[in-house]
Amino acid sequence: MSPYKITHTAICLFYTSLGFKPSYLYDQGPMDLELASRVLTDLEEIVSELFSTMVVVEFSMDILFVNVAALSSHLEEFPTECFINVSTDSSFTAKCDQWALVNDLRNLSLLWSDRQLSSFVLEMQEDWCGPSVLGLMLGFPAVYYLSSEEHRLNNVLLKVITTTVNFKDRNYEIDSFSLPMEVWDKLKPVCVRRQQRIEAKGSTWPVIVSQVEIDISSLAL
Prior knowledge:
alpha/beta, four-stranded mixed sheet, three-stranded antiparallel sheet, 7 helices
């Protein structure tokens, strides 16, 4: 792993532990659940006050470092209008009946909060939508939902909102999500409140929230 990736991972873990986001999806190379658990255990021994509320969760081959308290808070506050159906057989709908998923994750977060174990495997359920699970776990203010196998985000104008940390004159992305511009006006207040919460937390290093509109030919969910 390059020095940049090591620093990037450390910053993402640090800001997740502070509650800037409820989970960090590790994407810097291969890591299994056992190794991730050892990493978290070592971090807790070094800085227990930061990492004592975190667990490691494996979901669909992905590894997430989860701040359980922040995740529970996010799930309790998640607005009803923030599931966006992006299926080809549907217009963009900013409300879907996915509350069984939210309740399932709430119950799991209560189990994880006991921290009798430091790592868990989150099994995909038949009535869950994978992108929705990851979006909720990562603390996005709105998440994608699929009612069919194909999405319609190809050639759609998207608003991409990214949070970066400036450390030693280099920017490190700690968070990024997209929304179709078609629903941006409706969901903008939710995103603004989220940005205000991030800014209110304060930070050792500058935290920058930026927005850009992009039109992409393909987006892999």
